[in-house]
Amino acid sequence: MPKLCVDENKCTDCRICQLVCSARYNGIYSPKLARISKKCGIMPDTTSTDVCQNCSDAPCVAVCPAEALIQPNGEGMVTLDESLCTGCAICVDECPYDAIWFNEETDLAYKCDLCGGSPECEKRCPTEAIYVCGEEAV
Amino acid sequence: MFKYGGYTGKILRVDLNTGTVEVEALDEEMVRDLIGGNGIAARYLYDTVPAGTDPLSPENALILMNGPVQGTRVPAVGGRTVVVTRSPLSGFFIDAYYGGHFGAELKFAGFDGMIITGRAEKPVMLVVEDGDARLVDAGPYWGMKTFVFQEKLRSEEEYHESEITCIGPAGENLSPMACIISGVHAAGRGGVGAVMGSKQLKAIVARGSGGVRVPNMDALEKYCDGIVERMQANPATSKVLPTYGTPAIVAANNKLGLLGTRNYQVEVFTEADEINGEALHNKAFVKSASCFSCPIGCAKLFRMEGEEYGPAESVGPEYETIWSYGSNLANSDLKSLIAADRFSDEMGLDTISAGSVIGMAIEAFEKGLITKADTGGIELKYGDPKLMMELLKQIAANKGFGKVLGAGTREFGRRFNAEELAMETKGLEIPAHSPRGYPGMAIGYATSNRGGSHQDGRPSAERGGAVDRKQKEGKGEYIVDVQRMTTLADCLVACRFTEGIFGLTTISEDYVDIMKHVTGMDYTIEELFDVADRVYALERAFNAREGATRKDDTLPYRVLHEPIPAGPAAGEFMEPAVFEKELDAYYQKRGWDVKTGLPTEETLRRLKLDDVASDLY
Questions:
Q1: Minimal-distance CA residue of chain A relative to B183
Q2: Which of B266, B348, B592, B594 counts the most CB atoms within 10 A of its CB?
Q3: By the 8 A CB rule, do B288 and B595 touch?
Q4: Least Cα separation, residue B181 to chain A (angstroms)
Q5: Is the Cβ of A12 closer than 8 Å to some Cβ of chain B?
Q6: How far apart are CA A110 and CA B470, in angstroms?
Q7: β-strand partners of B12
């Protein structure tokens, strides 16, 4: 599956990925609105990342009552059609990777869609820790 | 919504005497005149803390302030915060900066800064979350070391994923060398941790789901991309700092013969290769880390096996600590430097001042100015890492000989008639950039409002060769422009490692561009000079109320009277007559009175500081 992979050993926890993501999609710098989530303990070798893994037969697609989450033939990228999303947030609870979030202002779910194939975060990660991986990678 | 981009427009005012927390609006005119960070904090301090206030009394204010850029992607500035207060170490104005993520998180939580006064009856922490703030009992956490405390708090559901600014035992014990810690970063200088401890404030905890708005996101993002490209083209920000971090400076300064050794008695450390950037990289490097929004990643996690000095795992030591605990103490035991750095962070202790006073005490002991009767029976000698660890423990405990050391080099000199050995100005220990070899930096130390800091004025241009290191003439005027740059950067709360990009020696157009893109405000360079001069005059006026005059703008005896004895820089020092002449030029360029070392009434009024002019004249 094409997805964002993160080499945590290279990640310096600068959060630039989250900044460029929220800048692009929300027009504001807000890590909580980013489609990628970073966590880090006190020591820098404890970074971890939550981002959509584009699971096969994705559970979020299966539970979406509005059919707003789309994955043709149960393979490849899962996309969210915001015009269909009703904001029920069932997908948020269902995601095994904690990689779908809910925007209280818009009442809509949000998740990574790899910026359509050329992610902003990958382009701007200063240590090249983020990259698109998977057999169908662009 | 606040008129300008970048700001939340809200300040917290906390009175720990009464337990009240109030939200007040940030004044738009104040923002225009002082920008933020150090500038706005200096104004609040001047207005809040009357002359003669005991730094550890409830009446002193602890002020944390963001600038407009925190929380944005402007490279290398996003997460920094400044702490401003009256220093218990120097008795003067102090501004101490720290990196990490707290500044950004505070903004996402809805605030540009906070003014904290009073003293809580019992240990408390201030919890700031999404536009609101409350005081919470911190009794269970009092006494905890900083990393243990932060991990413990974050493991609790209520504080999950929060950013924490806290003190360790040194702050709780009111050591004048106590710093404030956030993550692994320190607001190091001047005893700001003791002020926090005196207020019984263990921590400030921030968590926010908000964001930072700017006038034109596309334009700012494009500008940020351009800065990143310039950083990638600069060897310091693309190779040296990302690979080695600040420890790279050890070899450079030792090669020049300007690595303070044995309390600056000499400036070549023959064992420097054991503790330089290469040695740390090859023997202990684990991983790089960044502050929020920074592409450089200068922080280095170092780890070595064996715990004879305590856990040898730390983000650091930085260059300053390698000097203060290394060459300054003739200590080439790398593992002990990592362990001592970790210990100092956990206890919340300023490594610069602590290492400086230990180095001075050892010299005083060797010269017979103090004896075992003064040290609690301990024999002091250089090159003894176990002794260093023991003395650091005593300083953090603020007891016995540790309390004598923790009072600082100025006090130590007075107490033991050893003033000629004290490496300080205004009571703040000077760090690792030789004042004998870098004359511009020396005048920067002397005229710094906070004392011996390498952040009011900079050594970088002299060290790198952008200006002639050995030339003394003209360095008085030169350092005014460098200080204008550092002061303005401190108002934005920008990291010094942007200086190679934005300009080493004065305020550049980049600051005009950043202010325009982030806030929407149009400044000319001249107006930014005025902002910097206004802020520096405010700091100076605060010190003037505490009795500071030209006599306090001086240098350690050793710098003025003892040439470097040997090595590549042998013979270099700052002759008093040259120093005084450059100091005259410095004051004249600033529009200050050469007799008093204070801004003239005319200068204060030109800078729209009429109230300050009325106070001083």
A1: A42
A2: B348
A3: no
A4: 11
A5: yes
A6: 59
A7: B23, B114
The CA distance from B138 to B136, in Å, is: 6
Mutate to test the interface with B, among A6, A11, A13 (most CBs of B within 10 A): A13
Min Cα distance B538 → chain A (Å) is 32
CA distance B494 to A99: 32
Closest CA to B323 of B435, B247, B413: B247
**Closest of B306, B316, B308, B358 to residue B338, by C-alpha:** B316
Compare CB distances from A28 to B78, B147, B213 and report the shortest one's residue.
Answer: B213
CA distance B439 to chain A (A): 36
CA distance to A37, B165, B305, B348, B594, per residue, from B147 (Å): 23, 11, 20, 10, 47
Residues of chain A positioned with their CB less than 8 A from the CB of B289: 12-13, 44
d(CA B579, CA B49): 33
**A30 closest CB neighbour out of B210, B286, B296:** B210
pLDDT in tens, B442-496: 999 999 999 999 999 999 999 999 999 999 999 999 999 999 999 999 999 999 9
In degrees, to the nearest 5, what angle opens at C-alpha A130 toward C-alphas A127 and A135?
140
- Note the CATH number of domain B10-207: 3.60.9.10
Q: Which CATH number belongs to the domain containing residue A54 in this structure?
A: 3.30.70.20
pLDDT band at A134 (very low <50, low <70, confident <90, very high): confident
Amino acid identity at B440: G
pLDDT of the residue at A137: 45
* B433-616 CATH choice from 3.40.50.620, 1.10.599.10, 3.40.190.10, 3.40.50.1360: 1.10.599.10
Q: How far is A102 from chain B (nearest CA, A)?
A: 12
- Asked if residue A138 belongs to a domain, the reply is no
Give the pLDDT score at B326.
98
ipTM: 0.96
**pLDDT tens, residue by residue, B338-380:** 999 999 999 999 999 999 999 999 999 999 999 999 999 999 9
